Amino acid sequence: MIARLYTPSTVGLFDARRRRKRGEQVQGSSAPSALTGDELFDLELLRQAVRYQHWVLSALGPRVRGRVLEVGAGLGNFTRWLSESADTVVALEPDPSMAGSIRELGLRNVEVLPSTLEELAGSERRFDCAVLINVLEHIDDDQSALRITYDSLEPGGCVGMLVPALSMLYGALDAAYGHRRRYSRLDVEHLLLAAGFRVSFARYFNPIGAIGWFLVGRVAGRGRLSPASIALSERIAVLVGRLLEGIGRPPFGQSVVAIGVHPGT
């Protein structure tokens, strides 16, 4: 049984911790508490990382189109941009308040489903593409999650995913945000292959962000991002990262970005 997917895309970092504090069930954790003002601030803070969001979606490439399933849509930070390139988007977000935030965006081609990925298992609905951005790292059985995703796709469809990279970067930020693990590029390739996908590509992403994550989470031991760190990422990390991509694939990064293709029968 996989964990319930309450993680909301990029802001999913914060939601696993929030669920534990509310006493909702997260596999491997059941500590109760309540949502704090600081955590609401964190969730809203990442709305402002617009350049980063566009960079992530551009890295996933033109396959993200047609009927798109977004797993862990959160406040709709990526949903608003996915709706511009997709025919339709089904935004899977179990948290009622965050699902309501997506509805308030008024995106005409977006359907919000207050459900988990495991609740989608066995459904007859099929999609051309599924997007999982900062989701798998919160789940004990990430392999089962990818298999459910595989089964939700049409033959020839794809999954686009972003996960945190490199175990050496694991620090206070990861622990605070409920990360079970960080991944190598090979880890991601093996996960995709084991779930039945053909690997279109898997590569490291955002090397400047990796340095910042290490300094904040490992060296300084801080468990929170700040408006300054988001602004710095928008102004420097995205710009420099895009320039470096023009030279070649970076040997490390804050994340691994990947596309897996459903080969059909």
Please give a structural write-up:
This protein has one domain: Rossmann fold (3-Layer(aba) Sandwich). It contains eleven helices and seven strands. The protein is globular. By secondary structure, the protein is α/β, with parallel strands linked by helices. The longest helix has 21 residues, at 227-247. The protein has a seven-stranded mixed β-sheet, with helices on both faces. α3 (50-60) packs parallel to α11.
Q: Can you name the CATH architecture?
A: 3-Layer(aba) Sandwich
Span of the ends, CA to CA: 26 Å
In spatial order, strands of the major sheet run 3-2-1-4-5-7-6
Estimate nothing, just give the exact number of structural domains.
1
SS summary, helix count: 11
- The gyration radius over C-alpha positions equals 17 Å
| CATH class descriptor name | Alpha Beta
| Elements, N to C (H/E) | HHHEHEHEHEHEHHEHHE
| Overall average pLDDT | 84
Structural class: alpha/beta
According to DSSP, the number of beta strands is: 7
Shape: globular
Within the CATH hierarchy, at the fold level, what is the topology?
Rossmann fold
Largest sheet properties: 7 strands, mixed
